[in-house]
TrEMBL record, chain A:
InterPro entries assigned: YibE_F
UniProt keyword annotations, A-Z: Membrane, Transmembrane, Transmembrane helix
Stored Pfam families: YibE_F
Membrane-spanning residues: 16-37, 135-151, 156-177, 183-203, 210-235, 255-283, 304-329, 349-372
Source species: Filibacter tadaridae
UniProt-listed PROSITE patterns: PROKAR_LIPOPROTEIN
Lineage: Bacteria, Bacillati, Bacillota, Bacilli, Bacillales
Keyword set includes Mitochondrion: no
Protein name per its UniProtKB record: YibE/F-like protein
TrEMBL record, chain B:
Lineage of the species this protein comes from: Bacteria, Bacillati, Bacillota, Bacilli, Bacillales
Keyword Lipoprotein included in the entry's annotation: no
Annotated source species: Filibacter tadaridae
Keywords annotated in UniProt: Membrane, Transmembrane, Transmembrane helix
The keyword Disulfide bond is annotated on this UniProt entry: no
Regions crossing the membrane: 27-45, 51-70, 77-98, 129-150, 186-202, 222-248
Top-level division of the source organism's lineage: Bacteria
PANTHER family on file: MEMBRANE PROTEIN, MEMBRANE PROTEIN-RELATED
Name this polypeptide is given: YibE/F-like protein
One Pfam family recorded for the sequence: YibE_F
Length: 379, 257
C-alpha cells in the first residue's frame, strides 16, 4: 500500500515538474518573440496612430461592389539604425481584404524605408509584411497544451510524432533540393517508410500488432499509388489542370504524385492500425477464435471506418480551394471552368486517397491474419 | 477519358465490393457532402450574408449527413451531433479571434501569380471565409471522434449498467485518447501532402526562418493544422461529459419509474 502511494506521489511530482518546465518554456518563448526585433534584418515598425483619409465606393467590371479606403499610418521603428524614429506610411485597403489589409494601432509590420528619406527625420516607407511570429507561437502553445492536458501520454506522443515527421520531411526536401534533384518520388518513398514506422511505433509501441499495421500501411500506400499512377497513365492525365497548382518551382507531375503519396498516408495508417489492433484484441481475448470469425469482424470494422476516414480526407482537401473558387466565380468565370481549374487536383487527391483507404481494409485484414497465424504456429 | 471520372468509378466499385451496402452509402454521402459545399460556396458569394453563419449551417448539414444518414438517428448520433456542434461553435470564436490578430485572410505574396488578372475587390469578407475553410477542413475528424466516443460509451454502459459516472467518464476519455493520435495523424499527413509544393518553394527560394514564420501562407497553414488538432482534442472531454450525463440520467429516470 505504502509503495503504491509513493509511486503515485513520484508520478505526480514528475508530472508537476514536466508541466512547470513546459510553462517556463512557453513564457520565455512568448517573451522572446515579443521583443525579438533586433534578430530580424528587415526593419520592423509598430503602428501608433492611424487616420482614415478617404473612402470610395467602387464597382469592378463584374459589378461587384466594394469599398476602398486610404489610411495614413504613423509607426515607430523598432530595430536597425532608425530605431525609435517615426515613419509615415500610406495604406490602401478594401473591405473584402483579399490581398490588402486595414492596420490598427499596435500592429507590428515589416517595412521598407524609402531610401531618399533615410537620413532625414521624416521617414516614409511601404509595408511589406505583417510580423506574425508571436501569434503563430501562441497557437502552437495552445495546441501543445490542449493535446497534453486532454490526451496526456497519447497527446505527447502525437505532438512528438508530428515534430519528428516535420523535421524528417524538411531534411528530406533539403536532400532533394540540394543533392538529388531528379528523384523526388524515390526520396518520398524512403520518407514514407520512416513516417510509417515512427508514427505507428509512437502510437502503439513495439509489438506484433504495430508490425502488422506497418506492413499493411506500406502495401496499402504503394498499391494506391500504383492505382493512381495507372489511372493517370491510361487517361493520359486528361482532366487534371496542373496550371493552377500553386507554389511550383519543380516539375509539377512528380510534385503532385509525391503530395498524393504523403497525403493519403495518415488515413491509410489509421485504417491499418484500427484493424490490426482490434483483431489482435479479439485474438488475445480468445486465442482459439477461428480465422473465419476474425475475418468477418475485421470486415465489419473496416466497413464502419471506411466512410468516416474518406470524408476526413475529402474535407481536408476540398476546403482549401474555397477562397480561390469564390474569387474565380465572382470574376464571372464559367462554373465548369472555375471548378476544373481549382478542384480537379484536390478531388483527384481525395479520390485516390479514398481508394487507398478502401483497398487497405482487406490488405490490413490479411496481413494481420498472417501475423496471428504465425503466432499461433509458434505456440 | 477523364481522370476524375475513372478514379470515382474505381472508388465506387471498391467501396461496393468491400463495404457492401454500407460502402454504397459512404460513397453517396461523399456526393452529398460535395453538394453541401457547393451550396455553401454560392451563399458565400453574396456579400450581404455572413460567411460564419453559412458555415455553421453547412456544418449542421454535414453533421446530419455524416451522422444521421450513415448511422441512423439514435441517442448515440444525437449526442455525437451535439458535441460536434459545440466544438465547432467554440472553434469558430477562437479562429475568428486569432485570424484577426494574424491577418491571414485572402491570398499571400506567394500566390500573386495565381490571382493575377482577377479583380480582387469583390466585396466578400475574406477573413470570415478563411475561418470557414478551417472549420470545414476539420469537421470530418471532429465528427469521427464524437461518434466513436458515443458508441463505445453506450456499448460499455450496455454491458455494465452498474458502472459509476466517474468510471464511465474515464473510459470515454481513454477511448478518445486512442483516436486522438490516429486522427491528428490523418490530418497532419493530408496537410503535408497538400503543401509539399509550398515547402519546396520555401527551400528553393531559400527563405529564412523569419520569412517563413511571418509569411501569410505559412502562418495560415499552421493555423489550419493546429486548429484541427485543438478541435480533435476538445471534442474528447465534451463528448465524454455529455454521454456520461445522458447515460446516467436515463438510468436514474428508469430507476424512478
Amino acid at each position: 500500500m505504502n509503495g503504491i502511494v509513493k509511486k503515485v506521489r513520484k508520478c505526480t511530482t514528475h508530472v508537476v515538474l514536466f508541466y512547470s518546465i513546459l510553462t517556463a518554456c512557453c513564457i520565455t518563448s512568448i517573451l522572446f518573440v515579443s521583443y525579438n526585433y533586433s534578430f530580424y534584418d528587415r526593419p520592423i515598425a509598430k503602428v501608433i496612430q492611424t487616420t482614415l483619409e478617404d473612402t470610395t465606393k467602387m464597382a469592378d467590371m463584374h459589378n461587384n461592389e466594394d469599398h476602398l479606403f486610404t489610411q495614413r499610418i504613423v509607426a515607430i521603428m523598432q530595430n536597425g539604425p532608425e530605431k525609435g524614429q517615426r515613419i509615415h506610411i500610406t495604406n490602401k485597403y478594401s473591405s473584402s481584404g483579399a490581398y490588402d489589409q486595414e492596420y490598427r494601432i499596435g500592429n507590428e509590420l515589416f517595412v521598407s524605408i524609402n531610401p531618399i528619406t533615410t537620413n532625414t527625420t521624416n521617414l516614409t516607407g511601404i509595408i511589406i509584411e505583417v510580423k506574425r511570429d508571436k501569434y503563430v507561437l501562441f497557437i502552437a502553445w495552445t495546441f501543445i497544451f490542449a493535446l497534453l492536458i486532454i490526451g496526456r501520454k497519447k497527446g505527447l506522443f502525437s505532438i512528438l510524432s508530428f515534430a519528428i515527421n516535420v523535421l524528417l520531411l524538411s531534411f528530406a526536401l533539403d536532400l532533394y533540393v540540394n543533392h538529388f534533384p531528379s528523384s523526388l518520388l524515390l526520396i518520398t518513398s524512403v520518407c514514407i517508410l520512416l513516417f510509417t514506422a515512427i508514427s505507428l511505433l509512437l502510437v502503439s509501441g513495439f509489438n506484433k500488432k504495430t508490425y502488422a499495421a506497418i506492413v499493411a500501411t506500406l502495401i496499402g500506400t504503394f498499391t494506391s499509388l500504383a492505382v493512381a499512377y495507372f489511372v493517370i497513365w491510361v487517361t493520359s492525365g486528361n482532366g487534371l489542370r496542373y496550371e493552377e497548382m500553386q507554389f511550383l518551382t519543380r516539375p509539377y507531375h512528380s510534385v503532385f504524385m509525391a503530395g498524393l503519396f504523403i497525403g493519403s498516408l495518415g488515413a491509410i495508417m489509421d485504417v491499418a492500425i484500427t484493424i490490426s489492433s482490434s483483431l489482435f484484441a479479439l485474438y488475445e481475448r480468445n486465442p482459439h477464435i477461428s480465422h473465419k470469425a476474425l475475418r468477418a469482424s475485421g470486415m465489419d470494422i473496416g466497413k464502419d471506418i471506411m466512410g468516416t476516414i474518406t470524408s476526413i480526407l475529402f474535407f481536408a482537401y476540398i476546403s482549401g480551394s474555397i477562397p480561390m473558387l469564390i474569387l474565380y466565380l465572382k470574376n464571372a468565370s464559367p462554373l465548369g471552368f472555375a471548378f476544373s481549374m481549382n478542384l480537379s487536383l484536390e478531388v483527384a487527391r481525395a479520390l485516390a486517397g479514398g481508394i487507398g483507404i478502401v483497398l487497405t481494409i482487406p490488405i490490413a485484414l490479411h496481413t494481420t491474419l498472417f501475423f496471428i497465424k504465425r503466432k499461433q504456429a509458434g505456440l | 477519358m477523364n481522370v476524375i471520372v475513372v478514379l470515382a468509378t474505381v472508388l465506387f466499385i471498391s467501396m461496393t465490393l468491400i463495404g457492401g451496402k454500407k460502402g454504397v452509402r459512404s460513397f453517396i454521402s461523399l456526393f452529398l457532402n460535395f453538394g453541401v459545399l457547393f451550396f455553401m460556396l454560392f451563399f458565400m458569394m453574396d456579400p450581404a450574408v455572413n460567411p460564419i453563419v453559412i458555415t455553421f449551417i453547412a456544418s449542421t448539414l454535414v453533421g446530419c449527413i455524416g451522422l444521421f444518414f450513415i448511422n441512423k438517428v439514435n441517442s448515440k448520433t444525437v449526442i455525437a451531433f451535439i458535441s460536434t456542434m459545440i466544438v465547432i461553435g467554440f472553434l469558430l470564436f477562437f479562429i475568428v479571434f486569432i485570424s484577426e490578430k494574424l491577418m491571414i485572410q485572402g491570398f499571400g505574396e506567394e500566390e500573386t501569380e495565381a490571382i493575377a488578372g482577377l479583380s480582387l475587390y469583390i466585396g466578400v469578407d475574406f477573413m470570415k471565409i478563411g475561418a470557414s475553410v478551417i472549420i470545414i477542413s476539420t469537421i470530418g475528424a471532429i465528427m469521427d471522434v464524437a461518434i466513436s466516443i458515443a458508441s463505445s460509451m453506450h456499448e460499455i454502459f450496455k454491458h455494465n449498467p452498474l458502472i459509476s459516472k466517474k468510471e464511465l467518464v474515464a473510459s470515454g476519455l481513454s477511448v478518445g485518447r486512442d483516436i486522438l493520435g490516429s486522427d491528428t495523424n490523418t490530418l497532419f499527413f493530408a496537410f503535408f501532402g497538400g503543401y509539399l509544393a509550398l515547402l519546396l518553394w520555401f527551400k528553393d527560394l531559400s527563405y529564412s526562418i523569419g520569412e517563413i514564420v511571418n509569411s501569410k501562407v505559412f502562418s495560415s497553414e499552421m493555423l489550419l493544422i493546429l486548429c484541427a488538432g485543438i478541435g480533435i482534442a476538445l471534442v474528447i472531454p465534451i463528448a465524454t461529459w455529455i454521454n456520461a450525463y445522458y447515460l446516467i440520467k436515463t438510468k436514474e429516470r428508469s430507476e424512478e419509474l
